[in-house]
C-alpha cells in the first residue's frame, strides 16, 4: 500500500485495486503549489469534516473523477446540493465494506461547518482495513479517551494524526494518542500550513523517538509504502 502526501491533512492511499483520497485541500494551500490537482483522479474520496481546509477541492475532484465520496450524512447531503450524486453517508460507529476494504467512521473532538456556513455535522475519523493493513486517520481532533476503543477492533499498522497544535492536538498529545491506539508508527499531518500550526520538525521527531515511536513527516508530493 502506498500513501502520497499532498499537504495539510490531504493524502492519497493507493491499494491493490483502488485509490482513496482523504480531505482534499490542495489548490488553496500555498505549500502545495507544485501539486497538479488535475492529475489526481481517485476512485474514492473520504472527508473527515466540513472545514474548508479539508474539503476545498472535493467538489471539483469528485466531478472530474467520478469518485464516490464518503463522509457523514450532513456533508454528503451538502455535496448533493453541489451536484455530487455519487455519495455514501456514514455516521459514528458505522462500518461499510467498499471495493477497496472496510471503513469504520469513528469519533473526533473538533468542530465542523461547511465553507458556506452550512452545518457540517459532527467531525470524525476513519479506520480503514485494506490489503491486509489497518490504518487510522484521526481527522482533526483533540486527544480523547475514545481512542482507546480502537485497539479493541483492530491492530493498526499506521496512525495518521494531526500534530500542529492550536486547532488540534499537538505533538505531546499525539504521543499519548499513539499509546491509546497502540500504534508506534505515526504519520503526522495538519501542520505548517498556517502560522498557528507551524512546528519544529526535529523536536517533534525527537519526542516520538524518546517515547520509542516513529514520527514520519513527508514532504508534500512525496510517498511512503506501508
UniProtKB/TrEMBL annotation:
Similarity comment text for this entry: Belongs to the UPF0173 family.
InterPro entries for the chain: Metallo-B-lactamas, RibonucZ/Hydroxyglut_hydro, UPF0173, UPF0173_UPF0282_UlaG_hydrolase
Swiss-Prot/TrEMBL keywords: Hydrolase
SUPFAM superfamilies in UniProt: Metallo-hydrolase/oxidoreductase
Protein name: UPF0173 metal-dependent hydrolase DCC35_00040
Residues in coiled coil: none
Hydrolase recorded as keyword: yes
PANTHER family for the chain: UPF0173 METAL-DEPENDENT HYDROLASE MJ1163, UPF0173 METAL-DEPENDENT HYDROLASE MJ1163-RELATED
Gene Ontology molecular functions: hydrolase activity
Transmembrane segments: none
Matching Gene3D superfamilies: Ribonuclease Z/Hydroxyacylglutathione hydrolase-like
Keyword 4Fe-4S attached: no
Residue ranges annotated for the Metallo-beta-lactamase domain, each copy included: 7-190
